[in-house]
Amino acid sequence: MAYSKAVENRTKEFIGKFGSGIANSIADTGLFFPAVIAQSAFESGYGDRIPKDSNNFGGIKYNPNLQGVSGYVDSVTTEVVKGREVRRVERFAKFKDVESGFKAHVEVLMKDRYKNARLNAKSPEEQIKMIVQAGYSTTPPDVYLNKMRGIIEAARDISQLGRITTKKAEATTIDSSKNFFLSPFNAMFKSEPTFKQTKLTIPLKND
Amino acid sequence: MKKSTKIILIASSIIGLSAIVYYFYESQRVKKLNEKVTTLEEALKRIEELKNK
Predict the structure, then answer these.
(1) CB contact under 8 A, B33 and A190
(2) Cβ-based neighbour number of residue B20 at 10 Å
């Protein structure tokens, strides 16, 4: 556990406020719940730092073709240009409500260039790096990940969620027969029970 | 070997071993959570529980 009590509390509050909307938006996409929570919380400063009335939790640049866009706001942001941080004004999308903002964030991540990250990442950390490598941000992948690593860890510990599916057959089930060896340590190290992984076949919403 | 040196060596070994065991089980816990796939229904229930805590 490498995050502070403040990160834990703010992440818990963020999940309480926006977790349901995010869970609904990412079901069957292959996106990790802690990854989307961390990215949304980080990009928006836990919802405190988003451009005024924009409902834009993912730092999404303006594109009139995005669903739920009601306009744009110009806001100062930090971009990495040729390895140097540059402060400049960028045009960000404005969404009609919070739900639309999250849906648009997920819609961006549903683009084909993020398909590999969505389906093949083994952890939220790896998924964030792969998303950035695919062109999500101008910040180098490791730097971007390190900025939100604590939030990912807190979100994972608090929510105990990974990927989310609408199909019961794809959900992991507890396999108690394999839990014998780990059981004395579960209580000591807050271990989850052993899960039997059924093959995950995530249908792509944009395919 | 002095008795105090022995004690320090044993203590260091115990701490080192504990750290390895802790690291192993912590990584297993995280791995299992990452592999976990939850139904939307369960996830929403879990988030609702968190709100009320």
Answers:
(1) no
(2) 10
> For each successive 10 residues of chain B (53 residues), what is the average pLDDT?
92 96 93 94 94 81
Chain A residues touching B28 at Cβ < 8 A: 182, 191
Q: What is the pLDDT of residue A1?
A: 61
| Whole-Å CA distances, A174 to A28, B10, B14, B45 | 20, 39, 33, 18
Task: Check residues A5 and A192 and name the one with the higher pLDDT.
Answer: A5
Selection from A202, A181, A81 nearest residue A138 by Cα: A81
Q: Is A32 helix (H, G, I), strand (E, B) or coil?
A: strand
Closest partner CB to B29 (pick from A123, A191, A198): A191
- As a residue count, chain A comes to 207
How far apart (Å, rounded) are the C-alpha atoms in residues A134 and A157?
Answer: 27
Q: What is the pLDDT of residue A173?
A: 56
Q: How far is B1 from chain A (nearest CA, A)?
A: 36
Q: DSSP letter at A193?
A: P
What residues contact residue A192 under an 8 Å CB cut-off, 6+ apart? Answer: A160, A186, B29, B32, B33, B36
pLDDT digits (tens, 9 = 90+) for A85-107: 888 888 989 998 888 888 888 88
Cross-chain CB nearest to A20 (options B33, B36, B47):
B47
For residue A53, is pLDDT > 90?
Answer: no
Test mutation, A106, A165, A186, chain B, max B CBs within 10 A: A165
CB contact under 8 A, A12 and B34: no
